[in-house]
Amino acid sequence: MQPTDTVADTICRTVELGVTITGAAADSEDRTHIWCSVIDPDPRCPECRIAGQLRDRAERVLTDTPAAGHPVELHVAVPRFVCLTSGCPRSIFRADITGIAAPRSVVTTRTERWILQRIAIDKMSVAAVAANLGIAWKTVNQIAVGAARNMVYDGGHLDGVRHLGVDEHKVRHEALLFSGWR
Questions:
Q1: Which residues, in sequence order, are CB contacts of 93 under 8 Å at separation 6+?
Q2: Residue ranges of the domains in the chain?
Q3: pTM of whole model > 0.85?
Q4: How far apart, in whole angstroms, are the C-alpha atoms of residue 126 and residue 163?
Q5: Transmembrane region positions (predicted)?
Q6: Whole-Å CA distances, 18 to 41, 57, 162
C-alpha cells in the first residue's frame, strides 16, 4: 500500500474511491484539480491472470463531486503493466479502476450517484447540477437518464411485463378551477 496524506484524503474522501492524493491546485476557472494515484492496483493480466510488470502510468481525468462548493477534477495516475507471459495475447494492460469510474466515463462512480441524488431527492435542475460539477448539461442529462434506465431495466423491476398502461393523470387543481371545472 502506498503512503497516504490522511488529512487530504479524509477531507476529499478519496480513499473510498481507492485513490490517494499526490497533489492539488485551483485554476482560474474556480475548479479544484486533485492529482492522485491508485491504492494497491491489481497487476494481474486480464487475459492470463498472471501478474505483469509495471510499465508506466496513464492519466485519466474524471469529474468528481464538488468540494467546498467548487467543481473538482481528479487526475488519476492509472498504472499500466506489461504482461511477460509467453503466449498471452495481451502485451500491455491498465489496472482495473472500475471501482473509481466506469469504462469511458467522464465522472467518478460516486458522482453518478451524486447526480441522481441532486435531481431526484433535492429536486435540482439538470442545469444546476451541471453548474455545480462544472460540466455540460448534456453530459449530466445523459448520466442521469442512463443511471435511471439501468435502475429500472437492469434491476429486474419489469421482468415479465408485456404491456404497461397509465390509468390516471395527475392534474393540478388550479388548472381545473380556471378551466371552469368545479
A1: 45, 46, 47, 52, 80, 81, 83
A2: 1-101, 102-158
A3: no
A4: 30
A5: none
A6: 9, 16, 42
